[in-house]
């Protein structure tokens, strides 16, 4: 086994952090083939000396190199070059700033990665934006499976825009919220997230400004932030987006509105009917096309929310995104985009090149379920239970948190958007809570600046487990912060 | 209703085609808000005069503007500005060259769009790369549905890399082809197409060269061509990729190999065991990471093909793409990527931001089916039928086409790669055939230069319908070309 000689030192006057100069150097040496796989590295002490850096800087660099697979560290035999050519490319791509530059993907943030991993384990998930397993309508699915089992003659690639029977059912379903459309104006996607992705890849002009509510769900994604666009937060009042605070684009600039007018994630705010009209008109006047994310459209408690922007749109200026994830089952991965025909055609075309369409199985099962008259009964019950859980969750918060927390009562959706007293350090609380197997979403994930909020989901966990989670958080808050 | 005044003329000395200058002008006027929705256009005659262009140029421009929805033409009332802000953005994005520049998506080619549309109709599809509906194992699916119906407790977002039970089944399945791997080295995607997409978005360095067999399936996609990379075709001989014809990348350049070593689509060529070893070694020496597309791995006729490159890969230099589309059901949209852990982690991360994972329903059903001992029986029978259909298809070609066509007998896969006599104009034959409801894929879709080949699928249609299709093509050939 060959041991490597190192005769290079980082440039301490350069803007690039030293640890990163070191990872770049490793990556470069391996990518060029100068450091072959299997070669042994000098000890940490010797390396730090050779580079003229302190141990902790070196270790930061080595950790990252281990994470991307360029080196492995074996107790006994020390560190060895293990990277193949992919890990070398990976190391290059891990560099965030490069991604942003290239309009490509940024790695998910640390907190989100942690949540995604944890969400599969047996922890109390006040973070999870999904329907509760208890509400899963197994009987509806069983019926659909049985029917499908009898009739299925193949499961081949589907029509590019999605199976017609499903698009017909969606069109019917949309009439209930005031949208009158045709199957040819509908594109079925793998969840509405994919639709956002498709729009951002194929319709966003470079350097466009995307105006959105602050805080907003999309801030927690990298979809819009990766496409050479500027995501700009606009405050809300109790009626929703304060549209007049936008700067209208100059004649040769482009801007787009992305809005969650109904049960905004994370705040739960519903844009009033009047504000909807005004926003539409403002958008029309200032050449601002609108993306309307209606993921929570069907999960109201007692009263149907105002009609979607799309229902009021006479010029095709609104692209509407619906989803079955919040009212039935996210695992189906089915969403629908409603737009003018040329827009649908274009998105369909790009979508075919992305993954050839959504699962036919999911599409067929959903078409069966939507056509089942019992779906209405399920929905009504689902909403009733959800409203009860929202009330129970708020009663629990009043019991434990009244001294240091405030929130607005939601009228639909899955979340409580809770402001905590300034004394509570939320990133610290997050770490303490995950160590105790309780997950919540720090509000800063959704915002354009750090804030004092947490997002608590009352939908996924039972009220008993919600209370247990709050008890643990309460303990942690009292033990660690001066409230 | 306002009628527009036009005082602008295209620059006849500019490089941009005149019709495109006109569409750009319209798009610009509408995007800036200068031409409001509802405004009436002057007549075609007046417009042509005002622009100083001939009618046919004008009509080309108007057709494109109608296609993207910027204007509508109503008999009686003439042409009206109908575009909203989205259609205006669309018009901008329809410009191919801009896409390529931005590393974004190019519209699907005309022939492919046509095929995609037609594939949903009642035509003879010698183009379709799918298993025949007759071979669909309904009983296997019914069993899986019944079992699932009893056990399903929810359908929520899945583990980021895919449901563990499925990854375990895939790992077991892969042992049969010589790949020994762990669930944590596997990422489940929405078909293998999505995996190609993910890799190209998150691991391709800018300006990299992607070496691939010529002809190749990926040439028919825009995935790799959109990512600021250079797709470069390398010829094959009877043993597969002539790897020695590649130019090794210089020290500071990047290159990647994409190969379909087993039943190459479209040619059916299988890379020999020896060539696999040599290619791997060459790649290792010249710092070329490898993408191995194994979509047809399981669809051999009589004899299992040589082990995948991945089975021989000791350094993690190969990323392997498998799929259930060709051996069971493309409508499940399930593929699997096998790679070193850091690569899987990175792809998983990007994938979560793209669509939150593949349909849980598809994943669960496939896990059930792969675990069913009868899956083996199904597979064996599937292969036998496929081999028979391949033989029947060739007998048919011998009967009708021996005078003007040649091909190599395939040993697996779905396709005959048929060279037609030079006298046959393939684009013309394609148009004539679609008019007669027969679809085939022109070979040029897959190649780096025009060629005299067609790809005929013997998998999808029955041998009777295959023959009918060939009869119609034979008629067309005799009536139109001097063979
Ligand atoms: C506002 C909003 N939009 C879209 C989505 C994406 O949902 P899906 O891709 O499952 O349809 C979510 C999920 O959390 C959401 O909260
Ligand atoms: C070589 C090859 N790879 C990948 C695919 C994509 O298949 P899927 O996305 O259905 O797995 C195909 C489909 O035609 C193919 O021929």
UniProtKB/TrEMBL annotation, chains A, B:
It comes from the Bacteria. SMART domains: HTH_GNTR (SM00345). InterPro entries: Aminotransferase_I/II_large, HTH_trans_reg/aminotransferase, PyrdxlP-dep_Trfase, PyrdxlP-dep_Trfase_major, PyrdxlP-dep_Trfase_small, Tscrpt_reg_HTH_GntR, WH-like_DNA-bd_sf, WH_DNA-bd_sf. One of its GO terms (molecular function) is DNA binding. Pfam families: Aminotran_1_2, GntR. PROSITE patterns: HTH_GNTR (PS50949). Keywords: Aminotransferase, DNA-binding, Pyridoxal phosphate, Transcription, Transcription regulation, Transferase. Residues 16-84 form the HTH gntR-type domain. In the C-terminal section; belongs to the class-I pyridoxal-phosphate-dependent aminotransferase family. This is PLP-dependent aminotransferase family protein. It comes from Lactiplantibacillus garii. The lineage of its organism: Bacteria, Bacillati, Bacillota, Bacilli, Lactobacillales.
């Amino acid at each position: 086994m060959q041991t490597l000689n190192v005769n290079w030192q980082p440039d301490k006057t350069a803007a690039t952090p030293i640890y990163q100069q070191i990872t770049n150097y490793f990556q470069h040496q391996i990518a060029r083939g100068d450091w072959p796989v299997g070669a042994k590295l000098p000890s940490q002490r010797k390396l730090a000396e050779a580079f003229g850096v302190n141990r902790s800087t070196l270790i930061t660099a080595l950790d990252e190199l281990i994470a991307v697979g360029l080196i492995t560290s074996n107790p006994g035999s020390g560190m060895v070059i293990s990277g193949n050519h992919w890990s070398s490319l990976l190391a290059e791509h891990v560099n965030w700033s490069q991604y942003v530059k290239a309009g490509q993907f940024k790695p998910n943030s640390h907190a989100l990665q942690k949540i995604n991993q944890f969400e599969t384990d047996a922890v109390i998930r006040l973070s999870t934006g999904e329907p509760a397993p208890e509400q899963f309508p197994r009987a509806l699915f069983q019926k659909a499976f049985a029917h499908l089992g009898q009739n299925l003659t193949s499961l081949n690639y589907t029509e590019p825009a999605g199976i017609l029977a499903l698009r017909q059912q969606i069109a019917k379903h949309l009439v209930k919220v005031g949208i009158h459309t045709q199957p040819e104006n509908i594109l079925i996607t793998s969840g509405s997230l994919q639709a956002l992705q498709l729009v951002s890849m194929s319709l966003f002009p470079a350097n466009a400004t995307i105006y959105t509510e602050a805080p907003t769900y999309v801030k927690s994604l990298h979809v819009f932030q990766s496409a050479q666009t500027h995501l700009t937060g606009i405050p809300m009042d109790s009626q929703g987006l304060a549209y007049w605070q936008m700067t209208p684009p100059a004649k040769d600039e482009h801007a787009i509105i992305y809005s969650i007018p109904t049960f905004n994630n994370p705040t739960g705010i519903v844009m009033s009917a009047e504000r909807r009209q005004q926003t539409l008109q403002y958008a029309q006047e200032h050449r601002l096309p609108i993306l309307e994310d209606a993921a929570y459209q069907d999960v109201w408690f007692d009263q149907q929310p105002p009609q979607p922007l799309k229902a009021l749109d006479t010029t095709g200026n609104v692209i509407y995104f619906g989803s079955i994830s919040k009212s039935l089952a996210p695992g189906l991965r089915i969403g629908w985009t409603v737009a003018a025909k040329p827009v649908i055609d274009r998105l369909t075309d790009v979508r075919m090149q992305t993954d050839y369409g959504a699962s036919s199985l999911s599409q067929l099962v959903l078409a069966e379920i939507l056509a089942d008259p019992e779906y209405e009964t399920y929905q009504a019950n689902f909403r009733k239970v959800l409203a009860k859980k929202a009330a129970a969750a708020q009663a629990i918060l009043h019991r434990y948190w009244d001294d240091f927390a405030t929130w607005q009562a939601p009228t639909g959706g899955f979340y409580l958007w809770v402001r905590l007293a300034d004394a509570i350090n939320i990133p610290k609380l997050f770490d303490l809570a995950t160590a105790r197997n309780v997950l919540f979403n720090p509000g800063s994930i959704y915002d354009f600046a750090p804030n004092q909020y947490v997002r608590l989901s009352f939908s996924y966990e039972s009220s008993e487990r919600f209370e247990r989670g709050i008890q643990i958080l309460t303990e942690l808050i009292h033990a660690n912060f001066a409230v």
